[in-house]
Amino acid sequence: MEQKIPVSMVIPHHSYNLKTGDSDIALLRLNQPVSVNRFALPICLPTKDFSERELLLARYHTVSGWGRRTS
């Protein structure tokens, strides 16, 4: 079930660099809540402690992304 929810506010990362694309991430405030279902689920982000303890030591990682690096 597709949900189209308007974005009311974009909060870019404070270190975002338009030229290099570094820190290309933002928080989006939606106009209404998302209906959670089997196609739309919340995600869990790791804590800083877990990231430093576990993720920095890992040899391989999986990264997901959307959008384009160029226009």
TrEMBL record:
GO biological process, one term: proteolysis
Cellular component terms (Gene Ontology): extracellular space
Superkingdom field: Eukaryota
Every Peptidase S1 domain range: 2-69
Keywords for this protein: Disulfide bond, Repeat, Signal
GO molecular function: serine-type endopeptidase activity
Signal peptide (from-to): none
Gene3D superfamilies reported in the protein's UniProt record: Trypsin-like serine proteases
Pfam family, one: Trypsin
PANTHER family found in the cross-reference section: COAGULATION FACTOR, COAGULATION FACTOR VII
Stated name of the protein: Coagulation factor VIIi
Source organism per UniProt: Nothobranchius kuhntae
Gene (name only): F7I
